[in-house]
Amino acid sequence: MESLITDLTKLNDDKNIKFVNPRQVHVTLHFLGNLDGAQIETVKKIISQAVPSCHQAEIMTGQIIAFPDWRQPHVICLNCREAGQKPLAKLRAEISRHLPSAKINIEDTKWQPHITLARLKGPCRFRADGIGFSELSILLNQVDLMSSELTPDGPNYNIIQSYSLAN
Questions:
Q1: Element containing residue 72 per DSSP (H, E)
Q2: How far is the C-alpha of 117 from the C-alpha of 135, rounded, in Å?
């Protein structure tokens, strides 16, 4: 993953493109927006109740994609697919079931596992041509509740609470 981000950084020397630190890449189950302390405690409880039924998950990386599209990209991601019984999708569905009753708004879109590689601000062109990389198999053995802070140097993610997934 680090070499992929390094190669993309070399191709895209633009101040409007902020790459994720390779040590902070992750798969997002839900983007929850700005939460207050009480809401964070509620989310912790919801996750802690949902996680025991979830096993470790294997994801396979795919193509580099852009959100919302390549004409006007805002986020560059590595598309992923979940192998086996899709425990992450099941965990996400279980968490999704409880968030609205806690008055926590969630996005109402079809979930696609992905790893965010970069965020784009303003008009710029993102290049990924000539980037070759092999499909990766990644074992996910924990779920983290994280906060994110967008800085001029790129996003910073901080773990609020970690939850281990069963073997």
A1: none
A2: 15
Place of tokens 């590689």: 117
Identity of residue 141: N
Q: How many CB atoms within 10 Å of residue 68?
A: 9
Phi, psi of 161 (to 5 degrees): -155, 140
Judged against a pLDDT cut of 90, whether residue 131 lies above it is answered with no
C-alpha 24 chain-centroid distance: 10
Residue 27 · residue 113 · CB < 8 Å: yes
The pLDDT tens digits for 133-147 are: 888 899 999 999 999
Tokens 């493109």 map to which residue?
A: 17
Cβ neighbours of residue 167 under 8 Å, at least 6 residues apart? 55, 56
- Give the separation between CA 31 and CA 99, rounded to whole angstroms: 12
User: What structural domains and CATH numbers belong to the chain?
Assistant: 2-164 (3.90.1140.10)
Tell me the H-state helices in 62-130: 87-98
- Length of the chain in terms of residues written: 167
Spatial CA neighbour of 112 closest among 48, 163, 36, 61: 61
What does the pLDDT look like over 20-56, one tens digit per residue?
989 889 998 888 888 999 999 999 999 999 999 899 9
